[in-house]
Amino acid sequence: MTDTIDNKSSSKGSYTNNNVIVDTGCANLSSVKFAIERLGFTATITDDIKQIKAADKVIFPGVGSAKHAMANIIEKGLVQTLQSLTQPVLGFCLGMQLMTQSSPEGGKDKAINCLGLIPTKVTPLNAQGNRLPHMGWNTLTKVAKHPVLKGISAGDYFYFVHSFAAPVSEYTLASCEYGTEFSAIIAKGNFIGCQFHPERSSELGSKIIKNFLELDSTQMKPELHSL
Fold first, then answer.
1. Taking the model in full, what pTM does it have?
2. Domain count for the chain
3. Catalytic positions, please?
């Protein structure tokens, strides 16, 4: 499946970057597409391996369960492709979780192997009695310096919908608190993932997407990672 956004202009001029939104079969791709289009950028929705490998930037969205999403990715033959990418990659929500080593969404003693792009594991969100899923607006509690987070600060609000999360670790760029602290943004090398939905997070979410699409690729250098 491919679907191209035709608007090539932006507030800073003309952008011809070859941006791709990965069609995992488990995301609201229209929402992501419109968020990019509103910023004046061009992108293609696709699960074509050649197009994904040739992209300048890759956006990796996802909603639903890790088990279903990984099954789709395996069926589409995208595992090795996604693991081998060296260009900047930005994951949204479940897309971020799929960047980790594993998720427990398969049930007790049935962890789902994920893509292993960032060496951390997803765990059930310890909400300390708060209602799950964690749904709605919440603030970032800590924010590290990173080119994708230019203009983003602790206390800024973003829109979350999730019951699982990555713990705070050396790969955490920003955290959030809902009962306990968890990773709102994680990164390693050319891979960065947001637990929240940037495409549904108003101006600040758009800022993150815009920062990513305007990146010089050398600002997120690829690193070797265990698969």
1. 0.89
2. 1
3. 93, 197, 199
